[in-house]
C-alpha cells in the first residue's frame, strides 16, 4: 500500500509505504519531468534550462495512478507523470551514510596479492565475438581496475584492436602508441635488470590518461614480469595505519612535471590521493620519476607530508600488495590509470622483449560496459 501527501505549502511531497518513506522537492520533481516538452523523446536530453522553471514552483496536487505518480505544478499548471520505480531508484532523502574519508564506490573491490590466482583474464578471440563475454570481462575491469587478455594477434599494432574492444586511443606527444623494446644481455643487464617502482603513468597530464594498455609482441628474456598494485587498497591501508598520513596526502596538492623533450612542458597540480567532496576515493597519482618540487604543503606539515609519501611508497612496494603476471606474445593488459599502479620486475637472463603501449580513457570503457549491460538480460553480467 502506497500513499502520497503534499506539505501545506506545496514545497515537497512524501511517498509512504509500510516500509519506506521518500520525500521529493517540487523544484526537483519539476526539473526531472520526462514529458516531451521537458526532455527530447529521442535522446532524453533536457530541452529546458532551470531559468525556464518559475522560482516559486510548487506542487498544486499529487495523485497516485497505478505505478505512476501524477503531479500538477503551480504556477505553470503543468501536469506530469513519474514512474514510481524511477522515483525509488533516484530517491535522495536516504539516511546519509556515514562514509569514512576514502570510501570507494559500491562496484569497486579493492585487492592485494591474494588476487594472484584470479587475475581477470579473457581470450581475445572470444571477447571479439561474444558480447556477453566482453561485458563480463569489462565488469571485472571496472571492479578490480585491471584485466588481462590472452590469445590475441601477434602483429605490430595489435594493441589498437585490443582498444577497439572497449574504447578509443588517446593520442599524446608520445604518439598514438609507444614502443617498449628491451635487449637484455650480460653487458647491459645491470641497467635493464632494474625493476621500476610501481607507478601511475603520466600524472603530469591534465587530465591524466585514465586507461593504459600494454601489449606484448616478443618476450624471450627471463623475468620482466608485469606487476600491478591496487592504489585504492594502498591508500586505504595508509588510512588505517595513520589517518594523518592519509589526510596530508589528500588535503594538499603535489606537483608533477615532464619537460624531457623539445617543445613539451607538461605540468599538473593535483593530490596524490584525490577525494570527491563527500570523501569518495577517486584517484591515486604516484610516480617518483615525474614528481616536481612540492610547494603547496605548509611549512609545518612538510615533514609529515614526506613521512606519509614515504610510507605510501613502502606500502606500494610491499609484496603482499602486488599481483604479478607474465605477458607472452599476443597477451596484453589494461589498467585503470587513476587507480592501479603498474611496474616491470627486473630481468634475470638474456633475450629480447617488445611491448607496445598506448593510452585510452575509461569513460569509453564504462560507456561500452553500461550500454552492453542495458542490452543484456538481468543476471547475465558481472
Ligand atoms: Fe608506466
Strand content: 25-35%
Radius of gyration: 25 Å
- CATH level 4 superfamily of the largest domain: Clavaminate synthase-like
Give the class-level CATH name of the largest domain: Alpha Beta
Low-confidence runs of at least 5 consecutive residues: none
What kind of sheet is the major sheet? Answer: 7 strands, mixed
Distance between the termini: 34 Å
SS class: alpha+beta
Mean pLDDT: 93
Tally of helical runs: 10
Roughly what percent helix?
10-25%
Are any ligands bound, and if so which? fe (ii) ion
Number of domains: 2
Number of strands: 20
Order of helices and strands: EEEHEEEHEHHEHEEHEEHHEEEEHEEEEH
CATH hierarchy: architecture of the largest domain: 4-Layer Sandwich
**Mass-distribution shape:** globular
The CATH topology of the largest domain comes to: Double-stranded beta-helix
